[in-house]
Every structure is written in C-alpha cells, then in structure tokens.
Amino acid sequence: MERRNFIKKTALSSLTVAVGTEIVFGSLIPEDYQPLALQDPDPFTLFNKDKEMVVLNDKPWNMEARAHLLDDKVTPEKYMFIRNNGLIPENIDAASWTLTIEGEAAQNIKTYTLAELKSKFKTYTYQLTLECGGNGRSEFDPPAKGNQWTVGAVSCAEWTGVRLKDVLEDAGYTDKAVYIGYHAADVHLSRDPEKEPISRGAPMAKALQDETLLAYKMNGKEIPLAHGYPLRLVAGGWPASVSGKWVQRISIRDRVHDGTKMTGDAYRVPCSPVAPGEKVKDEDMCIIESMPVKSLITYPMSGAMIKSGQKLNIRGHAWAGELEVSSMEYSIDFGSTWQNCKIDKPQNRLAWQHFTASISFPKKGYYEVWARATDSRGTSQPMLLPGWNPKGYLNNACHRIAVKVT
Ligand SMILES: Nc1nc2c(c(=O)[nH]1)N[C@H]1C(S)=C(S)[C@@H](COP(=O)(O)O)O[C@H]1N2
Ligand SMILES: [Mo]
C-alpha cells in the first residue's frame, strides 16, 4: 500500500496548479512521471514562432519556414528557422557570460565579459543571410539522412555585434593561425558533458571579414534563446552551421578545426561530382565554404489563382553566398524561355536581395512560375536538381510555384 502512494503531496499540489484543475487519482501518479498535459510544450509558443512554421524534429528542435512566410525583407523571429544539433542551454546568465579566445595560434588566452565586448569594440549592424547547408535536402534521390528540409531553412535577419576580427586582433594571434573553431554552451543529446553537439569554424580569411560578427542582438533586440542568446557567431553566406550559437570559446587553430561536425563527411560534399547513390570516401569529401546562388518566390503562395487578363506580381529574395546576385529571371514555360525580374542591390554584402516581376499569361490554364538567379561569376541555379551528394547538401534548384489562370 505504501508503494502505491507514488507522488508526494507537495508535488501533487504544484501539478494541480500547473494543470489548472484537480487531478483525479493524482496520488497514484508514479514518481518522476510528467502528466501528458505538461509534456510536449507547444513549440510555436515556446519559441515565439508562427503556427504556420513546420516542426521537423523535437529532439533536438528543428523547425522551418514555408516560402510565403519568408516574404519580409528582414526575417522576423517568428519566421526564422531553428536548427539545433543538441539541447538548448538552460539558465543562461548574460551578466556572467564570458567569451574566451584561445588555441594553438592565439598569442594570449583572453576572456571577455559581454559588457567588455560591448564597450571595448565598435558595434556593427548587418543583414546577413544564413542558410542551413542541408536546406532542400528532401528533394534528393536517393534520399540522404538528416532533417528533410524543403525550402525554409534560410533567413536574413539584422545582426548587431562586434567584429570577430577586432576581438581576434585584440587577443593577438601568431602566423600559425589557419582556422577558428567555436565552442558553445549547448548540451549533447546524450547529456554527456564531454561531448559537444557541434563545434565548427572557418578559415582565418572568413573569420577576419568585416561582416563576420560576434552578435548580441538580432533585429534590434537581444538574440532569442533558440537563436543563440546571449552571444552568437554570425558568418553570412557560408553554411549556417559555421554561425555558432551560445558561443563561449573561440579557438585560433594552427590547423583546420577538427571539432564535432568538422571531420568525416559532415558539411562536406564530394570534391568532384559523383553519380547518384555512389559511395564516397571521407578523404574525397571537401568542406563546404560559400553557399551557392539561390532564390525563393515568397509571394504569392504556390496555388495562386488569377483572372484571365490579370497580371501576376511576384516577389522574393535571391542570394549567392559570398557573391552578389547579378541577374534574376522567371520562366512560365518550364524553363524554355526566361524573362528578367527587377532585382535590388543588397543592403550590405552577404544580405539577400529582393526581386519583383509582373507576369502576363497568354491564356487560361495551369502554369508554373520558375525563378532563377545568376551570381556575379555567371553561375545560374540548376533548373531541377544540382549534383547529388551523399549528405544531401546544397540543393539550390530553381524554386517553383503553381498558378491557375481562370
Ligand atoms: N551552438 C550551436 N550552434 C549552431 C547550431 C547548434 O546546434 N549549436 N546549429 C548550427 C546550424 S547546423 C545551423 S543551420 C544554424 C541555425 O541557426 P538558427 O537556428 O538560428 O536558424 O545554427 C548553427 N549554429
Ligand atoms: Mo545547418
């Protein structure tokens, strides 16, 4: 009888408060059991996301936007995808948060508080495009393991912080420096404190770019918890995995950083093209650097209906990793012919660019609008799929929407 009285009275009363009504048979709830009503918190409320966002995984949390949700010129928090490799750190205290610069090629090991970073270094604000290396993975065949992102693992928010370059120069580094690697506060899914969920980085040249930030604000406010509060590395134009959230340490390495998800086949593609399904040895896989040219039609939604004789005004964004998008076109005949869109200059380097077009259709019926961007080196998006790769990265195929003219 003793053993059946599983739950303590005090615990029961707090559960009752949380559930908002009497828990009939509450005294029989096994110890350490969490009633369903308190499990699986609504992820949209939890992360301030719009209900139209799509949850791909809850352990860890991964969530993507749909194309039409990315219509804003600067992506608001509610439409920003979340990609976590581990568990979001808990009980963050920004007042005691520090960033340490260290590593084989660091002149000094130096630790800064957030307040020191903010007061010691000049502040910069940039719009920066962050796209997950696996965005578009769901279209590859044979399929690749991992989150089946469609088109929505991309964002362009406005980030404010100090330049990584200024901090690295303040700490000092030797001529042995080739790479930086980040170490962050998130927790491995196994909860093993010895393991890091992810620890990636970038060559010194990228680390020292003007736009590579240690950011403490997103869209003019403190960075939301899911996106790296209170301090985040932001390296626009590269796979977003380089932009370490919750960053606590930056190592200045004398070799290519070999942290978690830097080695093996992670965030790598075959150095030269392979046939779909082909096995590729790790040593024949190369680290992804600048992301490829890509675009997204954010208005209207696929499935738009318009009246015959009416023009359709489309809009969206285009980006090209480290490069600029130099031209933007659309096709209504499955890629046989292409017409120009109007494309704006980026707000700053590494920000996505906005395009518009006003489209006439020759007669009633079903159409698809395909959009194609070309970068400043003359490389265009592939119409259907780019080269297959084992991990399903870098799908920059033309985005398409269906339109009916009635
Ligand atoms: N510390 C830490 N940083 C991280 C990650 C992570 O799991 N932990 N995920 C990376 C990956 S793979 C991506 S695509 C981006 C996603 O950024 P977001 O969730 O702010 O959109 O964060 C990167 N930075
Ligand atoms: Mo990613």
Outline the structure in words.
The protein has 406 residues and is mainly beta. It has three domains: 2-62, no CATH class; 77-287, Sulfite Oxidase, Chain A, domain 2; 294-405, Sandwich (Immunoglobulin-like), CATH 2.60.40. Helices cover 8% and strands 31% of the residues. It has five helices and 24 strands. The chain has helices at residues 9-19, 43-46, 114-120, 164-171, 204-207; strands at residues 54-58, 61-64, 82-83, 98-102, 110-113, 123-131, 154-163, 179-184, 201-203, 213-218, 221-222, 232-234, 247-253, 268-270, 285-287, 294-299, 304-306, 312-319, 325-331, 339-340, 342-343, 353-359, 365-375, 399-405. The strands form six sheets. Strands 5-4-13-8-9 form a five-stranded mixed sheet. Strands 6, 7, 10, 11 and 12 form a five-stranded antiparallel sheet that branches. A five-stranded mixed sheet has the order 17-24-23-19-20, with no helix packed on it. A hairpin with a 2-residue loop joins strand 10 (213-218) and strand 11. The longest helix is centred in the N-terminal third of the chain and has 11 residues, at 9-19. The radius of gyration is 24 Å and the shape is globular. The relative contact order is 0.14. Bound molecules: ligand MTE and molybdenum atom. Molybdenum atom binds at residues 83, 132-134, 240-241. Keywords: Metal-binding, Molybdenum, Oxidoreductase. This is Molybdopterin containing oxidoreductase. Residues 87-259 form the Oxidoreductase molybdopterin-binding domain. One of its GO terms (molecular function) is molybdenum ion binding. Its cofactor is Mo-molybdopterin.
